[in-house]
Amino acid sequence: MKNIKIVGAGLTGLIAAHLFPGAEVFEASAKKETSGHKALLRFRSPAVGDAVGIPFRSVKVHKAIWDGDNGGFAQPNIQLANSYSLKCTGKVLARSIWDLSVVERWIAPDDFIEQLSDNLRDRVHYDSPFDFNACLAGARPNSTIISTAPMSTLSKFHSPAFPTPEFAHRSIFVYRMQLANCDVYQTIYFPNVRTPVYRASITGDTLIIEAIDRITQIDIEDIAALFSVAVLPFDNPEYTETNQRFGKIAPIDDAWRRNFINTLSSKHSIYSLGRFATWRNILLDDVIHDCAVIKQLIRSDDYSRALLVENTFKNQALTQH
Questions:
Q1: Cβ neighbour number for residue 244 with a 10 Å cutoff
Q2: What is the CATH number of the domain that holds 269?
Q3: Measured over all CA atoms, what is the biggest interatomic distance in the chain, rounded to whole angstroms?
Q4: How far is CA 198 from the centre of its chain?
Q5: What burial class does residue 259 get, using C-beta atoms within 10 Å of its C-beta: 0-12 exposed, 13-18 middle, 19+ buried?
Q6: 199, 210 Cβ separation under 8 angstroms
Q7: How far is CA 164 from CA 40, 139, 215, 255, in A?
Q8: Which of 201, 110, 210, 219 is closest to 170 using CA atoms?
């Protein structure tokens, strides 16, 4: 496959570039601004690491729910699950808080993004915004485009047959800090509205707190105490606070979503890839499979493409996360 352009040098775009050898990656931001994925990053299989040639570590993850209103740990119930969903998305949806079983996960190295970028060398072009206007305005372009840009962004350049839905999303604040004498993998969910924190996790010796609003250092110390651990001094260089604009997304009308994705690919050779481009709550593990589907779509004639798209959307409906 020649003349493939990937839009976006976040995790999805960098992974895709490893699976499409020779593809050029175009990123609007400066390089230092794209390495800011600070939220919890766990994988359900080693597939991503295997695909990009970076070994992952297999770990066991333990989970719990902290019910602040009742001052203790709790088991999942409808009230807590719905409160957690409302807190994260503004809607009552099925969320992972229902399952507290011990699970196996795979952990990427701390410098995963840097390794991905270094592997691609000069194939990644930073400070290089992609011109979707030109791509969507004229005839089918000569290049094949794989876009990881948010669907809400592309909808501004393209007017489909149906009214554009509201792309409800919520920004999050992520806090990372080092812990002393610690090497475990654990998560605590916080469904109650009394705290903006919705999830706190330990990954090895790093505490990662995710919240819908800013929190204080006292809040951080209180959360660390729930794990019975102590954080290192806050002037430690490993302590960071990050704001991620698209922290949580809520579903949109699925018929509109599917029509939009199909129109982009069939008429403009723009293939949507990743959580925000397809506006689905998927995992990075799914990117590997979706890249394989895109490869098939690029090679297919119109009839085969239509069948493949239909089957893909059916499979997505059966495997929503």
A1: 16
A2: 3.40.50.720
A3: 61
A4: 17
A5: middle
A6: yes
A7: 31, 23, 34, 12
A8: 210
The string of DSSP codes covering 207-244 is EEEEESS---HHHHHHHHHHTT--BPPTTSTT-EEEEE
How far apart CA 228 and CA 239 sit, in angstroms, is 19
Ramachandran bin of 22, using left for φ above 0, alpha for ψ from -120 to 50, beta for the remaining angles: left
Number of domains in the chain: 2
Instruction: State the pTM of this model.
Output: 0.87
- The pairing of strands 24-26 and 124-125 is parallel
Structure tokens at 175: 């806090």
Tokens of 117: 């970028």
pLDDT in tens, 166-177: 898 888 999 999
Shared domain for 118 and 229, answered yes or no, is: no
Residue 41, pLDDT score: 87
Looking at the fold, whether 191 and 283 belong to one and the same domain comes out as: no
Pair 93, 177 in one domain: yes
Q: Which of the listed residues 249, 269, 287 is the one where a domain comes to its end?
A: 249
Q: Give 221-242 pLDDT, tens digit per residue.
A: 999 999 999 888 888 877 899 9
Do 240 and 189 share a structural domain?
yes
In Å, how far from its chain's centre is CA 41?
9
For the record, the structure tokens of 245 come out as: 């604009």
Q: Are residues 301 and 277 in the same domain?
A: yes
For 52, half-sphere exposure in the C-beta direction (CA atoms, 13 angstrom radius) is: 30
- Interval 191-205 mean pLDDT: 94
DSSP bridge partners of 174: 210, 242
Choose the final residue of a domain: 249, 276, 293: 249
Same domain flag for 157 and 18: yes
Q: Report the chain's mean pLDDT, rounded to a whole number.
A: 87
Range of the domain at 95: 57-107+169-249
Q: Which two tokens stand for residue 122?
A: 């000069």
- Residues 173 and 211 sit within 8 Å (Cβ to Cβ): yes
251 near 93, Cβ under 8 Å? yes
319 exposure class (CB count in 10 Å sphere: 0-12, 13-18, 19+): exposed
Report the C-alpha gap between 149 and 129 in whole angstroms.
11
